[in-house]
What does this fold into?
Amino acid sequence: MTDTVPMIDSELSEQERLEYWAGEATRVTWNAPFTEVLDWSDAPFAKWFVGGRLNAGYNCVDRHVEAGHGDRVAFHFVGEPGDTRSISYRELQQEVGRAANALTTLGVVAGDRIAIYLPMIPEAVVAMLACARIGAPHTVVFGGFSADALAARIADRDAKVVVTADGGFRRGRPSALKPAVDDAADRCPGVEHVLVVRRTGEPIEWHEGRDLWWHDVVGTASPVHAPEAFDSEHPLFIMYTSGTTGAPKGILHTTGGYLVQVASSFETVFDHRPGDVYWCTADVGWITGHSYIVYGPLAAGATQVLYEGTPDAPHRGRWWEIIAQYGVTQFYTAPTAIRTTMKWGDDIPAAYDLTSIRVLGSVGEPINPEAHRWYRDTIGGGTAPIVDTWWQTETGAQMIAPLPGMVDAKPGAATAALPGIAIDVVDDSGASVPNGHDGYLVVREPWPAMLRTIWGDDARYVETYWSRWPGVYFAGDGARRDEDGHIWLLGRVDDVMNVSGHRLSTAEVESALVSHAAVAEAAVVAASDPTSGQAIVAFVILREDADAANPGIVAELRAHVGREIGAIAKPREVFVVPELPKTRSGKIMRRLLRDLAEQRETGDATTLADTAVMAVITAAVAGAPDAKEA
It folds into this structure.
């Protein structure tokens, strides 16, 4: 292994890059071969694997059964209450066939749109694959979203059917879903049917003529279904990004290019081998769940864990218990979750046998070095490599990651572009920055899993992603290329603070705070300041063994950041809080913290995992007289 990043892709010609992707396309089964790898004549509107025809559902299920792997476990499902079941590829094929036939009976045809609003249960995967099988593009809406958010997505797609459940289980109690669907469907006259999975058994309102039980419709359908082949550019799904302002963006992904790249990256990045047991903790309501629970791993014929609940229910060792029980070999989660479990102490994972783990993955945001080291040493036994992956809803698949065994990754660095991907770091003029400099992360060449447009708004697609520099996709992230060529993510450009003319990333300051022995997690925001333009305000959670009553902790943390980064990076204020505002997927909602830092009324908090947490944080902030330097 080497500390210097090999230039895997940057030296490839365009022809070599296309030849690479043509080779990767053999990972999937085509009903009709493609005649051209890429049509970029109408840039930035791409067509990949032109003329090829395939079915994503067939590729994820049927072909494995036909190859003699029908008895292989596709999913070990673990419900939060403790119910479990293992589903083979043959059983998955039958369930998907039933669901596809049921949707067809309800009048769904290729091109119709379906909305899915389910907990992390097998029916969520079955519904997605059934939609893919019949060519009905799906929109999966995260179960933590409100009725308003759900209605907006249903209306934008003009969805014909909504698949939901009475509810799911969350931290030991039922969490209702059906009421939000009722509210949203009442506002969306295009919804003809609501298909309801019975999960919790809680009473729900019933709308005769519109509501149908999953077990009545799907459970009685034939398991035999012949999938239809669709054009490579047939829409597969639309995933909405959650912005803080403006209408949500419906990111359109199509079938062939997306399936090729998620299958390729899954097998390459996670070093997947026969007999492995893979577990991604994401929700299928996010792009990570689409690409690295459903389409990528299933296209590769992987065996997975599918878990309904949280890492602390019914106890804080739940994740490690599941890993030990099923012999998980690859584990993929978010830095926020890593820092949370780190906060709980090393003794919890130490109680479980985690020696089956061969590769660890990180996704969702830059991972700070301290969390990286803890993850590797405490969960990975000091030997499992960490693949710190950078990608987006828009990219569809992983774009940057250290390949296991090829590069000795530096804690906190995303490392280098994956094969076939043309990543660059550029300055304001769009020119590549030399090693040792900061800039903007861009993609210089099209890639197979790329978004095709924003649903119903081609102009917004061009303006949002392709207008900063002609012909270059701007990811919206800042990055640094270090002296060895490793890429370090600095967070969203709009999370870059300008303090007295100095550009500082929130990720960099957060990483410095978490490197202090007393800090488990930190979130940093910028607040208006009459002197410096913007000032740094930090919210920190202390480790359980830290002295929260220490009156000098704020000054100590400010001094620590000064030593780690420099005096200019010292936070103006540091608030010790019991929790941070997070969505159910683990994302920190920094806009709510900005509201507190600016001393204004906090905005909508309905998508938080715990809507009461803002009151607790606000009270902690109000009672912290020593938060600001004297």
Q: What stands out?
A: The chain has 18 helices and 30 strands.
